[in-house]
Fold this protein.
Amino acid sequence: MTPQPAAGLSLKPQYYADARSADAAGLWFEVHPENYMCDGGPRLAWLEAVRVRHPLSLHGVGLSLAADEDPDPIHLAALRRLADRFEPFVMSEHLAWSQRGGVYHPDLLPFPRTDEALNRIAANVGRAQDALGRRLLIENPSLYLHLDGHAYGEVDFLVELCRRSGCGLLLDVNNVHVSANNLGFDANAYVDAVPADLIGEVHLAGHAPDERLGAALLIDTHGVAVSPEVWALFERVIRRTGPRPALIERDDNIPEFSELMAERAQAAGILSSAHAVTPAPGSRSRVNA
Amino acid sequence: MRSLSAFEEALRAAIKGDAAVLAPWLAGHSDGLSVYRNTVMKGAVDALAATYSTVVQMVGETWFRAAAREYATAHPPTEPSLMRYGAGLPDWLSAFPPAQDTPWLGLVAQIDQMWWEAYFAADAGVLGPNALAELTTNDLETTGVVLNPAMRLARFGQTLASLWLVHQGPRPPEGDLAIEDRPERLLIWRAGQEVKTDLIGPATHAFLATLGDGGSLMAAAEAAFSTEPDAALPDIMAQCVARGLFVGLTSADRG
């Protein structure tokens, strides 16, 4: 029986052995499926070994849902194979684009939130969900540029995307903090506006000031511990929504496993002290409207 | 034309270097553009450094990352999985003007690449020790071998396989790393989930290369004897089986 996922960690190759033997209550792991798109070998074998013990999430970075082109069918098929093999409890992607005209940019790129973009992304999310046979959670990105021509605020855009496509949301509170700092909006007001029943997962991560511009430009590095401001946003969200699967993301400057497990324990404490006040995520009653 | 496509083309061009094309789309300064530029480049360069780790060790992080930036600018990733990104780097490195003092660098990169190919190859059940024992002489003329998908074979005119091998230890090698003009043959394979590498003799190389080209076991044996008339063929075959290089038998032409 798979335990109920509570607080989880990014799974890095350095952690395979520790991850397999770790037994904290509610522990789960998340990987970027793009790093497992191979025919065989040690990486898939390790993921299998971890998956036998723990729930798993596939968190994609390459589907490029906000590109003005259809999702790559080869990439979707590779995602589907991984999903069918590893049976993740959740799959997620980003409100961003990365691929265009056969070139892949290893980043999550922004776009003006217009009606045209909403139509295109809703169609792309729908295509992806059909191909995967699963609902996706879509993550709010970290933003660095003041774009002209937004017709929607980010929360309104995401809520409308959920309504049209049936997807849910992965609320990354570090991205909210980073974007709010860089673009000058109120992070608390942002997270308060996200409907609780759409939030299927929450991400926490560390950020760093830009080397040249300092705190005026925060960068979502995933390379340091979660900051106090981001912990505060997380508590604020969880107090309102009740427990959600929550993840400590770490992709760079990888510390000892025990260090991340300590951060994870802090998230688990916040989750267990929260009282569920809304229906569990995954309810489709609203999003299918 | 303020379409989604037009914006994405502008951002793509701005990331490549032409910041001015983004100006009509900005409601503020363009300081954040550098974050996207840096992340896009770091993703590609990190992937190349992970794949070509022996080259990094030999030329140093700074030189490699500078070269990798040039490669990534000319040949950006084309798919979201970066696991196989940079397959063209060995050839590119061989023709890279700043690497002309080390003309063997591209071949070292090729060994790194083959190592990862073995690492990511499909899992396969291997033939047991008696699989070849029951074949008659006639069978040998019409039977070929399905090689393990994780097996890679290379031949070099210089001692580059040795050069690569001494860089695989936990510490960088010390002392003289002279390259000799002496042919070497390298076998890369996976035993279970562990990638293995070994120098092999001319007969083993000729035997496996012939099987890899679809030749029969008899043709492979003839190829082995033509490179080493006194080759110990039973030992070579037994070692191939013991290493798990054979995953099945197949019909083959004698030629």
Observations:
- The first helix of chain B runs from residue 4 to 16.
- Chain B has two domains: 31-120, 121-255.
